[in-house]
Amino acid sequence: MLKTCTTILVGKNASLTGSTLIARNEDGADDSNAQRFVVVNPEDQPQPYHSVHSGLTIPLPDNPLRYTATPDADPTYGIWGAGGINSKNTAMTATETITTNARVLSVDPLVEKGLGEEDFLTLVLPYIESAKAGVLRLGKLLEEYGTYESNGIAFADREEIWYMETIGGHHWAAIRIPDDAYAIAPNRWNITDFDFNSADCLASADLPEFIAKNQLNPDHEGLNLRHIFGSATIKDRYYNNPRAWYVHQFLDDNFVREPTDQDLPFINHATKKISVEDLKFLLSSHYQETPYDPYGETVSEKHFRPIGINRNLETHILELRNQVPDEIAGIHWLAFGPNTFNAMVPFYSNVTDTPACYRDTPTVVNTNYMYWISRVLALIGDGNFALYQDLQDNFAQTVLQNVLRMQKETDCQATPTEKTLTSANQAMADFILAQATKLLNDAINLGSRNMKLRFSLGD
């Protein structure tokens, strides 16, 4: 069950609040795939772990940490934990499906019964206390069990962000994102310049030999891992590259490149500090104010895959805050459904439970739950974007200003407790559900007045 996504990473000195930020759209197929927001307490962590896809049974360490996650509501195909923050304020998002090439796969084939996106979060996040430790634990698992797909994974703590990509069946490489930079990863190989001697680069121990022995480096000079392990296909030009281009041109005023450029940067520097609101806009974007906007009045003949899309299952921005107590440092921002028609909520991660309207998502439509009301609103809004845009914008603004106010009030309490944070999360969930219900009512009324099946004379 392949999930295609978009990832954005922001170093602590590049963010508006001094937080590290790792964010990702979890995208699936066109059909609905209901999502849940849960806390996995130590007693609920599987031991041993059983992978549905591969059939592997993997023993796990004792004493797992508590962590948040956004698994599938239907566990038939596995857990698919997607992203979360553990009780040591370490975050992980997994995974960004990426591309590779036949040269690599010919010498290190994918492992049909290996590990993959279904498994990674559950196997790693409860057992790490830093971003770098996440890279090393997952790297060890990849070397031992292999993987059946090519993926990018991000880890963060309050100081560092690391981004990791799998190579063939058993190899991997990871790079530390500079504190003053951001990175954008669509569904292609992303890491470019790499230095095996740098403390900011980690990789499989035999990766230099693997590259040299198999004559994988096409460049005369330097080590560009995208050139070595990635692809540069027509699909990349239209499906992947434009997403990176849109993010770069939004965040960097000096960025002048073409959407289809095969060598767009992975790591870059923004013109201004990057906010959570910026990330939400970008992860919801559909090439606004360009000829490529599918909702635009004039649409280019070039069709690019947008970031905000009907396949968005959920979006998380995992924020690890500095200059606040440990107890309130982790914020699991979350929105369900297609991003053009939803709103983010900053849930505290240091809790033992989540609000029922996010936690208990049924597998069939029920608008008492945030996943489903978000999907219904997206479907209505997509039918006539111009008609409903003001309603959606007002909804998103109202939600954001109020949940931020609730967060600030909670932050200011002298001794925040688990009970306090749970209550704050519930209040935010109650507020957005009420606002989403109001939006649904307003959208139905507005749409009814504009239906084609109407007549100017009444009975």
* Average pLDDT reading: 96
The count of domains is 1
CATH topology value: Penicillin V Acylase, Chain A
Order of strands across the widest beta sheet?
Answer: 14-12-1-2-15-16-17
Give the total of beta strands: 17
Q: Count the helices. How many?
A: 11
- Helix fraction bin: 25-40%
Shape field: globular
Q: What structural class do the secondary elements suggest?
A: alpha+beta
Report Rg. Answer: 22 Å
The top level CATH class name: Alpha Beta
What fraction of residues sit in β-strands?
A: 15-25%
- Using the 3D structure, state the CATH architecture: 4-Layer Sandwich
Distance between the termini: 53 Å
- Spell out the helices and strands N to C: EEEEEEEEHHHEEEEEHHHEHEEEHHHH
Low-confidence runs (pLDDT<50, min 5 residues)?
Answer: none
Biggest sheet features: 7 strands, antiparallel
CATH superfamily descriptor:
Penicillin V Acylase, Chain A
Keywords: Dipeptidase, Hydrolase, Protease
Family: Belongs to the peptidase C69 family.
Organism: Pediococcus acidilactici DSM 20284
GO molecular function: cysteine-type exopeptidase activity; dipeptidase activity
Structure keywords:
459 residues; alpha+beta; 6-stranded antiparallel sheet; 17 strands
Report on this model:
With 459 residues, the protein is of the alpha+beta class. It has a single domain, classed as Penicillin V Acylase, Chain A, CATH 3.60.60. It is built from eleven helices and 17 strands. The protein has helices at residues 102-107, 117-124, 131-145, 207-213, 225-229, 234-251, 276-283, 356-359, 370-383, 385-411, 418-448; strands spanning 6-10, 20-27, 38-40, 49-50, 57-58, 67-69, 83-85, 91-97, 151-156, 161-167, 171-176, 182-185, 201-203, 267-268, 312-320, 330-336, 345-348. It has a seven-stranded antiparallel β-sheet. A six-stranded antiparallel β-sheet has the order 7-8-9-10-11-13, covered by helices on one side. Strands 3-6 form a two-stranded antiparallel sheet. A hairpin with a 4-residue loop joins strand 9 and strand 10. Helix 9 (370-383) packs antiparallel against helix 10 (385-411) and helix 9 (370-383) runs parallel beside helix 11. The longest helix is centred in the last third of the chain and has 31 residues, at 418-448. The radius of gyration is 22 Å and the shape is globular. The chain starts with 5 loop residues before the first strand and ends in an 11-residue tail after the last helix.
